[in-house]
C-alpha cells in the first residue's frame, strides 16, 4: 500500500518537517499544496523549485501531485492573481493573455513539472478544481444552462493547456469537488475534453458520497479516467450534505469498500498497488488531531 499525504494536513510545516513526517509514518509520496505561506507556492523561482525537487528526490519521496487551487470552470472575472504567472510559462503566456484562469493553469503545469524532477513513480501531476462558483445540481437533476456552460468552459481550458502539459510530461487531474462533486458531474466536463488530452481524475472519496452518489456508481463513472483516490472520513450531518470530519475509521465512509473499488479500476489499467493518499484538512480545521495520528488511523483501517 503506497502511502501518501497532502501537506494540507500540516500547514506551515517546513520541507524538512514534511520529509521527517513521511519517513516516520512510512509514506513514500506527498501531495504538495501550492499556497502562500507554504514551502511550495505559485511564483517560486527556478532555484527554489530545483531545491525542493532535489530534496524530495534525495529523501525518496515522490510528488504524487501538485495540489493547485486553479478552478478551471470559474468565470474569467473571478480569477485571481497571486503570482502564479511568474516567468515559468512565459513562452506560452500568450495562450492565457485574455483568460487569467488559463494563465494560472499553464503556470501550475510548469510548477508541477519542475517540482517533480526525479520522480521515479510516474509522471508529474497537477490537481485542479472544477470551481464553477455555483451550487451542484441534486442527484438525478438535470444541470442548468449555467452549469452546462461551466462544463464547457472548464473543458475548453483543459484542452487549451493540453499541448503544454504533454510537452512538460504533466497530467492534469480534475478533482471531484465543489460545483462538480460527483463522478456524474465530472464526466460531463470530460465529455468535452479531447480524448488524447493528458487529463485524469482524483476521486476525493468524501464528496460524491456526501452528495448521494453510491461509491460503486462513482467507480463505474470514473473507471476510464481515475488517477488515484484521496482518503478521509466523517459523519454526515442529519438532513444535509455537510460532514463532520473524523479520524479514518471513526466515520461513516465505507473506506475498505472504496479501496477495493479503486483497486479494481487501477488493476484494469495495469496498476496493482495504487496510491493511498490521505487528505487531512487540518489547514481548514485546526482542531483536528495531528496528521501523524490520522495517518496511523488510516493505515489501521486499510491494513
Automatic annotation (TrEMBL):
InterPro entries: IolE/XylAMocC-like, Xyl_isomerase-like_sf, Xyl_isomerase-like_TIM-brl
Alphabetized Pfam families for the sequence: AP_endonuc_2
Keywords: Carbohydrate metabolism
UniProt keyword annotation of Transmembrane helix present: no
Xylose isomerase-like TIM barrel domain location: 19-300
Keyword Cytoplasm: no
Gene3D superfamilies noted in UniProt: Divalent-metal-dependent TIM barrel enzymes (3.20.20.150)
Matches recorded under PANTHER family: HYDROXYPYRUVATE ISOMERASE, XYLOSE ISOMERASE-LIKE TIM BARREL DOMAIN-CONTAINING PROTEIN
Entry protein name: Xylose isomerase-like TIM barrel domain-containing protein
Organism lineage: Bacteria, Bacillati, Actinomycetota, Actinomycetes, Micrococcales
Amino acid at each position: 500500500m503506497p502511502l501518501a499525504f497532502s501537506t494540507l494536513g500540516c500547514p506551515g510545516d517546513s520541507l524538512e518537517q514534511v520529509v521527517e513526517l513521511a519517513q516516520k509514518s512510512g509514506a513514500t509520496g506527498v501531495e504538495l499544496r501550492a499556497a502562500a505561506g507554504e514551502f511550495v507556492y505559485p511564483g517560486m523561482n527556478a532555484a527554489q523549485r530545483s531545491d525542493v525537487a532535489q530534496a524530495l528526490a534525495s529523501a525518496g519521496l515522490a510528488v504524487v501531485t501538485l495540489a493547485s487551487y486553479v478552478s478551471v470552470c470559474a468565470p474569467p472575472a473571478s480569477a485571481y492573481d497571486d503570482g502564479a504567472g511568474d516567468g515559468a510559462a512565459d513562452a506560452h503566456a500568450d495562450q492565457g493573455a485574455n483568460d487569467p484562469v488559463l494563465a494560472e493553469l499553464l503556470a501550475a503545469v510548469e510548477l508541477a513539472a519542475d517540482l517533480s524532477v526525479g520522480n521515479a513513480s510516474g509522471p508529474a501531476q497537477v490537481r485542479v478544481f472544477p470551481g464553477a462558483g455555483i451550487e451542484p445540481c441534486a442527484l438525478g437533476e438535470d444541470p442548468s444552462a449555467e452549469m452546462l456552460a461551466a462544463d464547457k468552459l472548464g473543458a475548453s481550458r483543459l484542452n487549451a493547456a493540453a499541448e503544454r502539459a504533454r510537452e512538460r510530461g504533466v497530467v492534469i487531474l480534475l478533482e471531484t469537488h465543489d460545483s462538480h462533486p460527483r463522478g456524474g458531474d465530472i464526466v460531463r466536463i470530460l465529455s468535452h475534453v479531447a480524448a488524447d488530452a493528458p487529463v485524469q481524475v482524483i476521486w476525493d472519496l468524501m464528496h460524491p458520497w456526501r452528495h448521494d452518489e453510491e461509491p460503486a456508481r462513482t467507480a463505474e463513472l470514473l473507471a476510464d479516467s481515475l488517477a488515484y483516490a484521496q482518503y478521509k472520513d466523517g459523519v454526515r450531518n442529519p438532513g444535509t450534505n455537510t460532514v463532520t470530519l473524523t479520524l479514518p475509521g471513526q466515520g461513516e465512509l465505507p473506506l475498505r469498500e472504496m479501496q477495493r473499488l479503486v483497486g479494481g479500476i487501477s488493476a484494469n489499467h495495469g496498476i496493482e498497488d495504487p496510491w493511498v493518499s490521505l487528505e487531512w484538512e487540518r489547514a481548514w480545521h485546526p482542531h483536528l488531531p495531528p496528521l501523524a495520528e490520522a495517518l496511523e488511523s488510516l493505515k489501521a483501517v486499510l491494513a
